[in-house]
Amino acid sequence: MPFPATRLRRLRATPALRDAVRETRVDAGDLLLPLFVHEEPGRAPIGAMPGVERLSVEEAVAEAQECARLGVAGVVLFGIPAKKDAEGSEAWAAGGIVQRAISSIKAHVPGLLVVADLCLCEYTDHGHCGVLCTTSAGLTTVDNDASLPLLARTAVAQATAGADIVAPSDMMDGRVGAIRAALDEAGFTDTPIMSYSSKFASAFYGPFREAADSTPQAGDRRGYQMDPANGDEAVRESLLDAAEGADILMVKPALPYLDVLWRVKEASRMPVCAYNVSGEYAMVKAAAAAGYIDERAVVLETLTAIRRAGADIVITYHAKDAALWLQ
């Protein structure tokens, strides 16, 4: 019935009624907190990301314990090794920083999900996501096929250390299939792959590169990460990863790509994760510090929008604060 018989404001009249008919909810159990683990003792602040720090293994365990106490679903681990080389060999070293962090967190907080980010950019001395080669035209680029065995080797090392999920973020073609085959051959048939299936070459990653010490020494990543203008290609990338064996798909970043998130969810009907990235976090923190916004209200609205667009899981640096506010 048209107005005046139909009045949608009736459903907004009281807080209890608004809550009862709310379509989208955010729970701490939907959230994953990124952690940057380094070889140094203690904690080191990250200038571009207030409230986020590089952590020793011991401090990463403490953060994981706090996440468990707050009901946050899990953590995503990024490693910052003491030494780097052209191949990124510390990524798969049995005693590598992420492998040690995985084992220690699982020993102390066994019920918490531990997701291992799977990429070489933090471990290579050139900062790219795979090994480099020179093309016939004299251009330096990432050698896609030569990088696949190294990524697969890293996945097995992470699973051996106890990772609940491996999450390839390199955007090499064919890497999900290579990782799935390597995990299965090593006996890790039950280890899921959460693929960064639609990872865009975004301007929103700047603070992360400071945090992870992963800025490319030359060039950029537009040759393998996605063009921000392309939505159809993002869906195609996601469906290809699903066909290769991905168990969860991811869209990164989140807020400028909510349309892509929706399309990937609708096309795949699979669990989908969205990464609320460092630049999005830093902007909220800066605006809140200046008094321009209410941080709590903006963060909870943002997480609700990401969930409404189709995300089953949200990776966010706000995870602990959001968990407290949601209580």
Task: Give an overview of the whole structure.
This protein is an alpha/beta fold and 327 residues long. It contains 11 helices and 12 strands. The chain has one domain: TIM Barrel (Alpha-Beta Barrel). The protein has helices at residues 15-20, 57-70, 97-108, 144-161, 175-185, 206-212, 232-244, 258-268, 278-289, 295-308, 319-326, and strands at residues 31-38, 43-45, 53-55, 74-80, 113-118, 132-134, 140-142, 165-168, 194-199, 248-252, 272-276, 313-316. The longest helix has 18 residues, at 144-161. It is globular and about 70 Å long. The mean pLDDT is 95.
In summary, what is this structure?
The chain is α/β, with parallel strands linked by helices. It has helices spanning about 15-20, 55-70, 95-110, 145-160, 175-185, 205-210, 230-245, 260-270, 280-290, 295-310, 320-325, and strands at about 30-40, 45, 55, 75-80, 115-120, 130-135, 140, 165-170, 195-200, 250, 270-275, 315.
Quick tags:
327 residues, alpha/beta, TIM Barrel, 10-stranded mixed β-sheet, two-stranded antiparallel sheet, 12 strands, 39% helix, lyase, porphobilinogen synthase activity, ALAD, Aldolase_TIM, ALAD_AS
